[in-house]
Here is the input.
Amino acid sequence: MVRPTHCKSPTMSSTPPRIEMYHSASCGYCMMARRLLADKGVPVDLISVDGDAKARAAMEQRSGRRTVPQIFIGGQHVGGCDDLHALDRNGRLDALLAGEAA
Ligand SMILES: N[C@@H](CCC(=O)N[C@@H](CS)C(=O)NCC(=O)O)C(=O)O
Here is the structure.
């Protein structure tokens, strides 16, 4: 089907999604998740929970989890480091980073 140029695909956003990661400086899982996203060449908004009770509470409220990292792509919770790597292995991460709906 030919789509009019002013119509966008319903599964793609025009701008890359914001990537947020709640993290702690001393966390190895956080380092691994950051490395994977750095390898993908995407900017990440890092939110440190170190000594920040409000940030930690926000992370727990948004994710329902207490461990770091917790990662959100386009506002959607994708989980922690293991979840991020699993998404990459099954081929879904690149699409999510490109703004494709889950
Ligand atoms: N399977 C989790 C493991 C995450 C994890 O165990 N993170 C540690 C820090 S490296 C943690 O948050 N521990 C509890 C805490 O610090 O309150 C993942 O892949 O993200």
User: Anything to note?
Assistant: Residues 27-29, 66-69, 80-82 surround glutathione (CB under 6 Å). Residues 11 and 101 are 5 Å apart (CA to CA). The first helix runs from residue 28 to 40.
